[in-house]
Amino acid sequence: EAQVTQNPRYLITVTGKKLTVTCSQNMNHEYMSWYRQDPGLGLRQIYYSMNVEVTDKGDVPEGYKVSRKEKRNFPLILESPSPNQTSLYFCASSSSTGGTEAFFGQGTRLTVV
Amino acid sequence: AQSVTQPDIHITVSEGASLELRCNYSYGATPYLFWYVQSPGQGLQLLLKYFSGDTLVQGIKGFEAEFKRSQSSFNLRKPSVHWSDAAEYFCAVADRNDYKLSFGAGTTVTVRA
Q1: Which residue in B has a C-alpha nearest to residue A91's C-alpha?
Q2: Cis preceding-peptide flag for A8 (omega within 30 of 0)
Q3: Which residues lie below 8 Å from residue A70, measured CB to CB, with a gap of 6+?
Q4: pLDDT (tens digit, 9 = 90+) per residue, A30-81?
């Protein structure tokens, strides 16, 4: 089954404690991205990757890092989380520019206290 | 830069009644257009997409959308809603030469019995 898998689904952490949210896709997609979803703001892109070792900033990259060492994996790293990073995070993947469907993970609900 | 506006934050509709969700976009050319649905606690699922050709697009779950270039709109419709249609709906646009999806803020649909 084609899917994007995120872990964990829920995470509560304290300010400043580094964390990683994993994302893996089994569709051999080139393009992967991270979004955060906040009430009234929709989904905003954090980072994206067009292929292995190729990453770039999205609209709201501050406080986040990513890496793309393998095609299937695209982890999101928060080196020093802060309360304003409390949000719902989605990983997505797609196979080519613009016109193909983006597949989304189930989401990770992060709370930073 | 492309942008998407969903003017209605929340819509309440009776079961069996028709539903229309509005979406306006700002873009220099004709983008790729999408509607996604997010059920509570779930990721995003693609309802339908418009690339070119026929401006009335059929999707899953009985939804359809109409692209109107003159109005820069891509409104979603369903003739008769079911209780299971209660969800949040997102309109999104993508550049034809880019992977990035830009989302509207979303419209929450409540279905009353």
Answers
A1: B43
A2: yes
A3: A52
A4: 999 999 999 889 999 999 999 999 999 999 999 999 999 999 999 999 999 9
